[in-house]
Specification:
The protein has a domain of 168 residues. The protein has no helices and 24 strands. It has a 17-stranded antiparallel sheet that branches.
Length: 400
């Protein structure tokens, strides 16, 4: 729904009047990641290493039908999409640690770091399949005013952890785009929300999917012959049934969540991206939001309310250098004595590159230059994830 005059490809791929354009897109993605030691406040065993593998296959087939009516250009798009996500996880725990859950203590003399005694957990995983039929339209109400509206009929099926299935869920959306002039456009959009969630209640039943509405309005602009794009938007998201963790376990060992009604998130986003001069390029983003439930209590405190990033790159002949800053405001998990807080922090990244020839290119990246220690995420007060430490990467690219 986000569109500027310079980006008509969003909904209109090179139309030719009275022609029917049929496009098929097939994508395959495989991810293989490993996680290292995770910190937990209470121990009955220490997870040493685990492996997660995700394979994702996507298929999207659609037909685009551009036409002319009342001397104005219009378009209708209809299609089907299919997504299959296969998830596998294998974990190992150390059998060297002797600990009492009621009085947790760890004697590291029992741990053999060079040859740890590991016991494999039962394999975990499954498939998640999402299918959808959709109909979209781009109607020109006037030369500078466009109506974008559509309907998506979605089905969801998953056997990860437990079997879950939802069929023929309707998700409508609509928006208006007005071109103020050659370089600026304003827009307003609405979409409904249907989102299954993996969260359990005290009786070990899955919470119902999240239901809600999303509203957004903003302005976009382009400058320097389209080399620099800017955007400003404000949004409001209203949701019911959003799961909030209590930090307690039910009888089957799942963390208990409570479905919250009347959760409202609102905020703004500012962005700029492109070339300032022939040598200098800039990417900047700033976002802020506030989320509260129907009682006025803060919601999702494990997410930073304000995030910002800026990246600048300067090129001289075949050389280039770059620097970036990433900011996250304070976030926390839990309350009282169990509260874990991550204060606001900034990380710095650097880059240098050299184009040796038309085909050969070298680049050095230094991430988290000052080796800032911080929590990347807080799922709850018992599970913490540290952010990546300082790292160096050197790359060479050769184009044929």
């Amino acid at each position: 729904m986000r569109k500027s005059r310079a980006k008509k490809r969003v909904l209109l791929p090179d139309p030719k009047f009275s022609d029917v354009l049929v496009t098929q897109f097939v994508n395959n993605l495989m991810l293989d990641g490993k996680k290292s030691v995770s910190f937990k406040i209470f121990y009955d065993a220490l997870e040493i290493v685990g492996q997660k593998v995700t394979e994702e296959n996507n298929l999207d087939v659609y037909a685009s039908i551009p036409f002319e009516l009342g001397k104005l250009d219009h378009e209708i798009i209809t299609g089907i999409s299919y997504n299959k996500n296969e998830y596998k996880e294998n974990g190992f725990v150390s059998t060297d640690i002797l600990s009492d859950i009621a009085n947790p203590t760890i004697n590291f003399n029992y741990i053999n770091l060079t040859n740890p005694h590991l016991q494999q957990n039962p394999p975990y995983g499954g498939n998640t399949i999402q299918k959808a039929y959709y109909l979209a339209s781009r109607i020109s109400l006037m030369e500078d005013l466009k109506l974008i509206a559509g309907l998506r009929v979605s089905s969801y099926e998953s056997d990860v952890a437990f079997d879950r299935k939802f069929e023929n869920e309707l998700v409508p959306y609509a928006g208006l785009v007005y071109d103020i002039d050659k370089y600026h456009s304003v827009y307003a959009s609405y979409t409904s929300i249907f989102q299954p969630q993996y969260a359990w209640d005290a009786n070990d039943n899955f919470l119902d999917p999240i239901d809600g509405k999303s509203y957004e309005t903003g302005i976009k602009g382009e400058y320097f012959d389209g080399n620099l794009n800017t955007s400003l938007s404000v949004f409001r998201i209203e949701q019911d049934g959003v799961g909030e963790g209590t930090g307690q376990l039910n009888s089957n060992g799942h963390y208990i969540s409570v479905a919250k009604k009347g959760v409202v998130s609102k905020g703004f986003e500012v962005g700029a991206s492109g070339n300032i001069t022939d040598n200098l390029s800039l990417d900047f983003g700033l976002a802020n939001f506030e989320a509260k439930d129907a009682n006025g209590d803060k919601f999702t405190t494990t997410n930073s309310r304000t995030t910002a990033n800026v990246w600048a790159k300067y090129m001289i002949d075949n050389y280039r250098i770059g620097a970036g800053l990433n900011y996250k405001s304070k976030f926390y998990s839990g309350t009282g004595a169990t509260q874990i807080t991550q204060d606001a922090f900034v990380t710095t990244d650097l880059m240098a590159g050299y184009k040796a020839s038309k085909s050969l290119d070298f680049q050095l990246n230094v991430n988290n230059v000052f080796d800032e220690t911080y929590y990347e995420g807080l799922s709850d007060a018992n599970n913490l994830l540290y952010g990546a430490p300082r790292s160096f990467t050197v790359g060479m690219k050769y184009s044929f």
